[in-house]
Amino acid sequence: MTEGQEADTSCIRHNSPHPTNLVIIRGNSGSGKTTVAREVRRRYGRGCALLEQDYLRRIVLREHDSGGMGAVAPGFIVATARAALEGGYHVVLEGILHSARYGEPLRGLVDAYGGTVFYLDVSFEETVRRHGRRAEPVPVTAEQMRAWYAPQDLLRVRDEVVLPESMTFEEVVTAVLHDSGLAGAAAVTPCPARCVRCAEKV
């Protein structure tokens, strides 16, 4: 959130009749969004789907992230999120998700299901530093990262929370869990809500 701005924990999804939470985490390459998203889902546990833009686009579709060529990825990613939400999963969707290509379908998703959008506002220099400290190295140069970098690429939707780079990893994860309402949201999927195997572990 911006300096001096209090978090709006009402969240648009709380006004939605849909029983699941949609959490979208966006930011430039190296901003830490994937690490945050994975930790948020890990802390929540079963009943929350983690959708990673890079996996769905690069691995599932094997599609380049280029504009102006009728890309399938934006619609495919949103359709996957819709399917998970309709199936009773809370959804954490993360990626660069440039507004020029993903803005319209993402806004439609938020309009339909509510949700909270988080933007990790990290400077280019800091993204390069964080990229260099990744536990899983990605073969990307600083020059490539600069070409992709888009400052303040916000979706401009209600309940969009801007998280500055001054926040620690723990502070960011906590903010995402609580500001989105996910921390207090019950699981509604068959697993674990009605799963015999999950019940045995309680």
Concise overview:
By secondary structure, the chain is α/β, with parallel strands linked by helices. Helices cover 43% and strands 14% of the residues. It has a single domain (12-201), classed as P-loop containing nucleotide triphosphate hydrolases (Rossmann fold).
Give an overview in words.
With 202 residues, the protein is α/β, with parallel strands linked by helices. The chain has a single domain (12-201), classed as P-loop containing nucleotide triphosphate hydrolases (Rossmann fold, 3-Layer(aba) Sandwich), CATH 3.40.50.300. It is built from nine helices and five strands. The protein has helices at 33-44, 53-61, 73-86, 99-113, 124-132, 142-148, 169-179, 190-193, 196-201, and strands at 22-27, 48-52, 90-95, 116-121, 160-164.
Summarize the topology.
Elements: E1 22-27, H1 33-44, E2 48-52, H2 53-61, H3 73-86, E3 90-95, H4 99-113, E4 116-121, H5 124-132, H6 142-148, E5 160-164, H7 169-179, H8 190-193, H9 196-201
Parallel strand pairs: 1-3, 1-4, 2-3, 4-5
Helix pairs in contact: 1-7, 3-4
Protein name: Putative kinase
Organism: Paractinoplanes brasiliensis
Keywords: Kinase, Transferase
